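Suppose you are handed a protein chain with no further information: no name, no annotation, nothing but its sequence. What can you learn? This example shows the usual starting point.
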Amino acid sequence: MGGAHGDGGDGSRAPKRSKVTAEMEMKEEEKAVVVERRAYARAGLLGNPSDVYFGKAISFLIENFWASVKLQPSRDLVIQPHPKHDLVAFDSIHQLVNRLQSEGYYGGVRLLMAICKVFYKHCTENKIELKAGNFTLSYDTNIPRQTGLSGSSAIVCAALNCLLDFYDVRHLIKVEIRPNLILSAEKELGIVAGLQDRVAQVYGGLVYMDFSNEYMDKLGHGMYRQMDITLLPPLHLIYAENPSDSGKVHSSVRQRWLDGDKCVISSMEEVAQLALEGQKVILEKNYAELAKLMNRNFNLRRRMFGDDVLGSLNIKMVEVARSVGAASKFTGSGGAVLAFCPEGPAQAKLLEDACHEAGFSIRQIAVVPSLLTNEDLKTLSSS
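A reasonable first move is to predict its three-dimensional structure. Written in structure tokens, the prediction is:
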């Protein structure tokens, strides 16, 4: 009877034992602990995009939107495509083209593969032993695409957390370097970004970050300080259902910065200073000043990048918010806007009405508290 290769040591075949063994393995897989982790959309409050230029930033996570990754032990290592975001079957060429124009070419499979590679390489280079065993990785997300809310890095961050817990190495990989691992995975794929998003997604809560050369050169990462999320006033997220691509925003400005363009360098330094000032303003709950800093942040970005790069739709979202007196700026590199109504609920209602009239979606933001566990906190460097 064909197919079985088990034996009792004398070379005799044992097909029944092989079948039982397979059934037992399947039962063990079912009993094995499934690891599922979430990472949330990021909103830059102040200082972005100076994080890419050795600047400073304050960011937080939006509880309304997240990516989740599930790791389930399995016999083979499998990266499972998402039925919607990794679509490869279409009704027609028309549907295929429409899909590519709205969603782009890439889903989350490449992100999961990249973080597995980066994680394994880091553990190997740092002599962190990984237990035997395979798994199946799958993901889901409700973060709107191309809105500058760090949807890609959320998938990578959630996957990294799954790997840390599956291999039980969370205590061996310091919190401060986890954002670097996430960014390295994205760089594998040619994604150009800074550490800000990944720091926020690893730490949770409200985070002040300093990416000055003195920290980056000495430590290999920035200086990160969590702040109390209850210090924040009510904030709103405005976004378009069909935004422009946010991946091209940094390109020309970065080259000018590298070329020593005095306007870009001084403007970027001023943007970074807004985060430093913002830390003090938030601690004092000086919300009138916070509104001014948010508006200044966008104005400086607009001066550096220009309207053609920012895009008319993105600018319109900011202008709609400002038309009712709300402070507003990009959450990231375009596609969504962070708004603050310093005059309170009545002004917030005006903002909602204005957004709906302009065809934009608006949500009041729920801020994610700190995500660091006691085990994570033990890995932090003493400051």
